[in-house]
Automatic annotation (TrEMBL):
Signal peptide extent: none
Entry protein name: Tetratricopeptide repeat protein
Superkingdom of the source species: Bacteria
UniProt KW Ribonucleoprotein keyword: no
Location of the Leucine rich repeat variant domain: 42-98
Keyword Methyltransferase: no
Species annotation: Euhalothece natronophila Z-M001
InterPro entries: ARM-like, ARM-type_fold, LRV_2, TPR-like_helical_dom_sf, TPR_rpt
Annotated Gene3D superfamilies: Leucine-rich Repeat Variant, Tetratricopeptide repeat domain
Keywords for the protein's UniProt record, in alphabetical order: Antenna complex, Phycobilisome, TPR repeat
GO cellular component terms listed in the entry, alphabetical order: phycobilisome
TPR repeat placement: 2-33
Length: 102
């Protein structure tokens, strides 16, 4: 719970790298706890999310997180190209739309 709370506080302060690290640690300690997984989708669309975090989140198990990465206007084309091959139709469509410049 401590890592989740600290991750939430870091997210509110704009410390996205710290937030994702705390959410990842909360997941490592309790892989069945769904809240830290879902909180990562709050980081994916943020305009200040680093390329490194976008790369990590583009491989997330949760398709909703990958969808938010595909929608992020700062996601590089290389990541979008990978997401255009995603197993989830909504993720593929969002990535292809961004690649097409829409």
């Amino acid at each position: 719970m401590a890592y989740l709370n600290r991750g939430n506080a870091r997210l509110q302060q704009g410390d996205l790298e710290g937030a994702i690290a705390d959410y990842n640690e909360a997941i490592r300690l309790n892989p069945d706890w769904v809240i830290p997984y879902s909180n990562r989708k709050e980081i994916a669309p943020h305009p200040n999310t680093s390329i490194e975090i976008l790369k990590q989140l583009a491989r997330d198990d949760d398709w909703k997180v990958r969808l938010e990465v595909a929608k992020n206007p700062n996601t590089p084309k290389a990541i979008l190209s990978a997401l255009a091959q995603d197993s989830n139709k909504a993720v593929r469509e969002a990535a292809n739309k961004r690649l097409a410049g829409q």
